[in-house]
Amino acid sequence: MLERVEELRVEAASAIEAASGTTELEELRVRYLGRKAELTTILRGIANLPAEERSQVGAGANKARKALEALIELRAESLDAGELESRLAEDSIDVTLPGAPARPVGHIHLITRTTRQIEDTMVGLGYQVMEGPEVEHDYYNFTALNHPPGHPARMLQDTFYVQSDPEVLLRTHTSPVQTRSMESQPPPIFMIAPGKVYRRDSDATHSPMFHQVEGLAVGEGITLADLQGTLDELLRSIFGSGREARMRPHFFPFTEPSVEFDVSCFQCEGTGTLADGARCNLCKGIGWIEVGGAGMVDPNVLGFVEDNGYDPERVQGFAFGMGVERIAMLRHGVPDLRRFFDNDERVLEQFS
């Protein structure tokens, strides 16, 4: 499979370099990077490969895709410039043309960029990106995740219900996608579920609508050590090399045992003290920053999908979740989550 990825990269690179116009270049982009392209199909099918091949093929295919995207962008700039020169040489001088290239109309929002970075890392590890409905049933949002009616944990996720049907609500987390995914395919399963979620919170660190990414890995022989290694790789990708993850005991209804996980502070390098001797203001002097929650999937959760092959006596796995806004706030030093949604250009232009 790696050989085929390399063949596609070389073939596409040669065609891109030989493109004679922007129209032809766009056709090449669709052929090699579009939704039906062979390279895209390989990325989507990584989870079906043997376990020992997933990481290498995922990383190789992802690297090839990024390289071709960069090559297309460079070739487009060159072709655009050449076509403009040809028109200027053939046409009369247009004094209304700008003296410098126009600035792009916009750019990808920081939340989208952060989500895509997490997705790229997890796809490279062999995970699939799955999606589910934002308007969800109580069964998937709570009951199938070990939150039976009357469970106190439901009160911590007060959300918005549909007035005409008390069993329908705006989902409070992306965890329902885990249950829906297990219903759609037997184990093993390795997936992440990014998306919008809703809770009745609003302050500097909470918003009624925010974004989460949740991950799930279920199969034979999966342990808490596998969770630790996955978090180490993910957090280093986000916050830089040298980062370490630690896990602390906690409680979540759908995992047992449950943990919260932290990343070593990237501002003070985990020492809790800045270069001038002052206490680190980011980690409050403890050397660690809280990122999210995780744990081993509770057997009760697997019991809801046991008929699809998820026998709690045979398979086990882990789940983890994190808020995308929190990751972006920590990484870029944004003090107030609401700034992401104010559409204030003074804020957005800092991340162009």
> Which structural category fits the helices and strands?
alpha+beta
Number of helices: 11
Give the distance, in angstroms, between the N- and C-terminal Cα atoms: 36 Å
CATH class of the largest domain: Alpha Beta
Helix content: 25-40%
Task: Describe the sheet with the most strands.
Answer: 7 strands, mixed
Unreliable stretches covering 5 or more consecutive residues: none
Approximately what portion of the residues adopt beta-strand conformation? Answer: 15-25%
> How many domains would you count in the coordinates?
2
Question: If classified by CATH, what would the architecture of the largest domain be?
Answer: 2-Layer Sandwich
- Overall, the morphology is globular
Summarize model confidence as the mean pLDDT.
87
| Rg for CA atoms | 24 Å
CATH fold node name of the largest domain: BirA Bifunctional Protein, domain 2
Describe this structure in words.
The chain is an alpha+beta fold and 352 residues long. The protein folds into 2 domains: 2-90; 110-351, 2-Layer Sandwich (BirA Bifunctional Protein, domain 2). It has helices at residues 2-18, 22-33, 38-44, 51-90, 110-124, 138-141, 176-184, 224-239, 299-303, 324-332, 345-348; strands at residues 128-129, 135-137, 161-162, 165-170, 189-198, 209-219, 245-252, 255-264, 288-297, 316-323. The strands form 2 sheets. A 7-stranded mixed sheet has the order 1-5-6-10-9-8-7, with helices on both faces. Strands 2-4-3 form a 3-stranded antiparallel sheet. Strand 3 (161-162) and strand 4 (165-170) form a beta hairpin. The longest helix is centred in the first third of the chain and has 40 residues, at 51-90. The mean pLDDT is 87.
